[in-house]
Amino acid sequence: MVQKAGAVIISAVLFIVLLMASSQQKAMAGGVGGINELDSTDCVEAMSDVWDGLAILNASEMEELVNIGKELNEAIFYGINGNQSVLTAQQQQALMNKFHLDFGGVRWPWTIEEYVNSHQSGGQTGYGGFISSVQPVNRDLDYLAGLYEQLRVTFPNDYRVEMNDTWGWGEIEQLEFFIQMFKQLKIDAGGNIICANFDALVDQYIIAVSKITRQDLEEVGFSCAMFQAAIDQLTDQQRQDLIEILKKLGMVEGAGIYGYAYLEKVFPSDPEPNHAGSEIKAAINNQVVASAISASNGYYTLGGLPEGECQISFDKADWSWKEVDTPVSLGQDEVKQMAPVTLRLGDMNSDKAINILDLLWMASKMGPVSGESLWADVNKDSQVNILDLLRVAQNIGK
Ligand SMILES: [Ca+2]
Ligand SMILES: [Ca+2]
């Protein structure tokens, strides 16, 4: 669930940028006969809501957004941070066959970077210039039209022609899709794209207005899940940055928490454990309202929470971990960082305490491991003996 959340956020951003790029590309396609082209300045004016939204970001946030866009595109086609590509080789082949699109065709973040570094607005280059250009007062339409044209040519000609002629999803449709995604796509505070929302936008602004079918999109891997998977490959910091930026853009719905849930080492000299698999649940009046699973480094995000008080529990089912409970109070749409939590070894009877009852239970399981005595073998040497009891005794009262 954590990964899903992150992916959603990234997806939204990526989607937006891609749409933007598509729109721009088509606008640039003006020179190609038969394609229904748009004037770049008209496109830029049609995107006023997008510029209004981006105008509240500062230069470093905009730069981070573009950099995250790069990471997402690389995740989709190549994989990042030790992961495999989100799209399979087969899906990438289908994407090329159907839409003439590959990694080279989605270079929009690099295009934006090159453009802002080589053009000025408001006397500034770089992302400061971009942010200056999108301000509602004295919006720099010439600068933005130039950027739009660069983005348009980033997309391959074959893609532009194919989308227009074969699929009937031309520049006008692509621009509208992009604008609506920017205005309507939502993620939760845990970074999960709200897929029902995503799918509704795809239905309304792709399927309903073109010859592209759901099956076509599935074959090329284009889905809410794909964008989520790309978000999942970001670093924790990038994911958190993305949530914060999208929150500023009004794309985050509901409150949420994030942080780290660690598993205790059996011995201090042990290597760092794999912290994956702890379940983090939020409950109100003992009713679970949301849950997430920690990643291998312990990171989790949990979104979709209402304003007010709720109880957060941390536990892991596969061993004798002691559940940790902590209350949290959230404001409307607040995203709160939680203190790190460490699950401790030794709560054999799952009563949320480590005490003599747990030691007595272990003592009744002494000998070679079999069945439920597996839990009592905390040092995993296949024997339940005094070493295990001594280790759990260290955690009494913790
Ligand atoms: Ca206990
Ligand atoms: Ca043992």
Structure overview:
This protein has helices spanning 2-28, 40-46, 48-54, 59-77, 89-99, 108-118, 126-133, 141-154, 157-165, 171-184, 195-207, 214-219, 224-232, 236-248, 356-363, 386-393, and strands at residues 187-188, 252-253, 255-263, 279-284, 287-293, 299-305, 308-315, 321-322, 324-330, 335-337, 341-345, 367-368, 383-384. With 398 residues, it is an alpha/beta fold. The chain has three domains: 2-248, no CATH class; 254-345, Immunoglobulin-like (Sandwich), CATH 2.60.40; 356-393, no CATH class. The strands form four sheets. Strands 3, 6, 8, 10 and 11 form a five-stranded mixed β-sheet that branches. It has a four-stranded antiparallel β-sheet with strand order 5-4-7-9, with no helix packed on it. The longest helix has 27 residues, at 2-28. Mean pLDDT is 90; it is low at 1-5 and 21-33.
SSE blueprint and pairings:
Blueprint: H1 2-28, H2 40-46, H3 48-54, H4 59-77, H5 89-99, H6 108-118, H7 126-133, H8 141-154, H9 157-165, H10 171-184, E1 187-188, H11 195-207, H12 214-219, H13 224-232, H14 236-248, E2 252-253, E3 255-263, E4 279-284, E5 287-293, E6 299-305, E7 308-315, E8 321-322, E9 324-330, E10 335-337, E11 341-345, H15 356-363, E12 367-368, E13 383-384, H16 386-393
Parallel strand pairs: 1-2, 3-10, 3-11
Antiparallel strand pairs: 3-6, 4-5, 4-7, 7-9, 8-11, 12-13
Helix pairs in contact: 1-4, 1-8, 1-10, 1-13, 1-14, 2-8, 4-6, 4-7, 4-13, 4-14, 6-7, 6-8, 10-11, 15-16
